[in-house]
Amino acid sequence: MSAVLPAPRPGAWRELWLITTGHALTHWYPATFYLLLPLIGNELGLSYSQIGLIITCQYLAAAIANIPGGVLVDTIGRKGLLMAVSLFWVGFPYLLIGFSHGYLMLLACVALVGFGNSLWHPTAIPTLGQRYPERKGLVLSLHGMGGNVGDAIAPVVIGAALAVFTWREVVIMNVVPGLVVALLVFVFLGTLTLGAKPPRGAESQSLADYAKGLRQLFRNRSLVLLSTGSTFRTMTQAALLTFLPVYLANAMGYSLAVVGACLFALQAAGFAAAPVAGHLSDRMGRKSIMVSSMATSAVVLIVMALAGGTVLFVALVAVLGFFLYAIRPVIQAWMLEMTPKNMGGSSIGILFGAQALGAAVGPFLAGMVADSYGLAAVFYFLAGTIVLANLFVVFTPNLPARP
User: Fold this and answer.
1) In the chain, where are the structural domains located?
2) pTM > 0.90
3) Which terminus of the chain has a lower count of CB atoms within 10 Å, N or C?
């Protein structure tokens, strides 16, 4: 029987949409960069492994920085300020990439992006979870939709811009929206609270209390299993985003405008799926939604590998996006429910640190597979990683939500 949810407090949706807009920009920049990878790889004469290493560098930096990011959130508490800093730090390194002509400089810039991105999710997700406790799945899915919007629109806009400007001019112009939204986040959410005063102890705590809570987190079997499963799921996602545009451009011969449209279809399907999955998980349970979505993703990836180079392959891109991206907010809501509220930033930091580790390893391994066996073999590799992810989720205890 469905639970009756309380009405949202006044002004709640305004806060949600501002945070969601910021989240869209944190995804806009990486989505832009994925589209530029074929151009950068051709200009610098990079192998598939070297292209994969670029994304590996970004997410390895994020993996290292996510837990310290959680420490900042749970001990300092200036959530609006941290979100504004994160948004600026994600966008600005892409400006530097526009002036970069060497591979090592490129790796350094994407590492800076990884550091900036590590602050956003441990800050924004626990904030939303605390302020919308009865609607975690739905609200986090709306926040996730912001990321899908950035992921979906960026390839279309940037693909069109590349028909007029060089890729270096595009990355320089592209920094402006991030700076504007970072300023808006700082002005409207830069104070300690986001409207009504949060519960005592929800914003900050002593380092001693934090250290005690952190030890308890790492003893949490559900957290460890879910984070490990998320590592393999994100390995799948990051490798797909790295090599799908390369496959479409190099193996199938599509223009960058068409490649951008395919990436839009991938993300637009995820945009549509996220609120559905979040809403259903609030009522049917997180685990059942995750297991079924990842199992379907594995099947779709195998069919894509078999249908490589055909129209069916392109048609399945949107189907894959629907199931692969649907569960991102479900994972986040489940993680918040299995950990104490005063450790929300750190639990999300651990989750995203584990995911960033998967995102770091996935593109490099997929690049090695592509160099050895061809680009089409990457999709068999992706099917294997999503199956591994699902196995860890299956064995995650389905515990009741913490109060």
Assistant:
1) 12-195+206-394
2) no
3) N
